[in-house]
Specification:
alpha/beta; seven-stranded mixed beta sheet; two-stranded antiparallel sheet; 12 helices; about 35% helix; about 20% strand
Length: about 350
């Protein structure tokens, strides 16, 4: 028996009739997760053609005022947007999510909780005289329909969207403080705006295009909430990424016009929040950031200090653990592990388990 679960999409006034199917083999945590077949099918048919422009499409908002945080307090006022400012800061976790894991969630929580400074070499510039919390207003988990370096293996896009939904639910709704969370109490969680989460897809692997597409979707959502006469805000998009992705970000081979497109990314509000690999020494990081061509970008690059309990996690390691023994997988939320087990993901083709880049 199928039931309808209506969720808003990324267009003003639009909605998707997303379904969740009651499967006897699944617990309620599975039954309550939407099925994204229609969303993914429409996205792929509409936005992956040769002439399609880069876009971000919202599949689900976990806060109905996204990207504007709700007002504090209870009652009907908590469902109205907070007083808008002229800047919206969005924490973006852009990944292939094959599968999503606790480290993806930790990136989001680090963005909301940690006091950060720019990369080595930029410290002391402008207002950055001491570390400070970025003040993220909204969060976006973004699944790419293609990747510059990865082919689609292991699980389908619809399955990945369901797992991304489960990860977002874990971040937004799992209030158990003795698990993997970085926040220590409900007040600290509320201060991060982590409840203001959305999930979606993008059709471009290039960060300069993704940054522009995130700004466009925030502006559309802003207009939907504030009215067509409202002045659109400045959007700062903090892209969370691993060290390997940061290296690729500055590689000229991924750009049509280098360094002009780098300049465009940062001028349009793009920011980088990276985490280095385990065992990567400070001397190597500092040496990389001392390259003269990076000097003008350093004030827009921040290091996230992921907790040790999640730094080892990668999607490729999770896939290998699933193949060897799903009972031993501890690096993904239980609802995702149950989904992987029910659909027998990551067991069929050994090539699907090949090494990929960390989140």
């Amino acid at each position: 028996m199928d039931t309808e679960l209506n969720l808003q999409d990324g267009t003003a006034g639009g909605s998707w009739g997303l379904k969740h199917t009651e499967l006897e083999s699944m617990s309620m945590m599975q039954c309550d997760t939407p099925v994204y077949d229609e969303f993914v099918e429409d996205f792929m048919a509409t936005y992956t053609t040769d002439d399609a422009k880069p876009i971000v499409r919202i599949a689900r908002r976990f806060c109905d005022t996204w990207p504007i945080p709700r007002r504090e307090g209870g009652g009907s006022s908590s469902r109205r947007p907070a007083s808008p400012s002229n800047t919206v800061r969005v924490g973006v976790m852009d990944s292939s999510f094959n599968p999503p894991h606790y480290c993806h969630g930790a990136y989001m929580e680090c963005l909301g909780i940690m006091e950060l400074m720019p990369a080595a070499g930029a410290r002391g510039q402008r207002a950055w005289k001491e570390a400070r919390v970025l003040g993220i207003d909204a969060y976006l988990l973004l699944l790419g329909s293609e990747n510059a370096d990865k082919r689609l293996t292991g699980s389908g896009l619809e399955q990945r969207m369901r797992m991304v939904d489960m990860l977002a639910t874990t971040v937004v709704s799992d209030m158990t403080t003795d698990t993997w969370h970085l926040w220590k109490n409900r007040d600290q969680f509320d201060a991060t705006n982590l409840h203001n989460m959305a999930i979606g897809m993008t059709n471009t692997p290039r960060f300069v295009d993704k940054c522009r597409a995130v700004t466009n979707v925030v502006h559309r959502e802003w207009t939907r909430h504030m009215g067509p006469a409202a002045e659109p805000p400045r959007v700062l998009s903090y892209f969370a990424m691993g060290w390997d992705t940061l290296i690729r970000f500055f590689d000229p081979k991924y750009y049509k016009a280098y360094p002009q497109e780098l300049d465009e990314f940062f001028a349009n509000g793009g920011r980088i929040a990276y985490s280095r690999r385990l065992g990567f020494p400070d001397a190597d990081v500092n040496a990389y950031f001392e390259r003269p061509e990076l000097a003008s970008y350093l004030e827009y690059i921040f290091e996230l200090k992921l907790p040790k309990r999640v730094k080892h996690i990668s999607s490729s390691n999770v896939r290998l653990a699933v193949r060897d023994s799903t009972q031993g997988v501890r690096d993904i939320p239980p609802r995702i592990l149950e989904f992987v087990n029910n659909f027998q993901l990551y067991r069929q083709n050994p090539s699907d388990l090949s090494q990929d880049y960390p989140a």
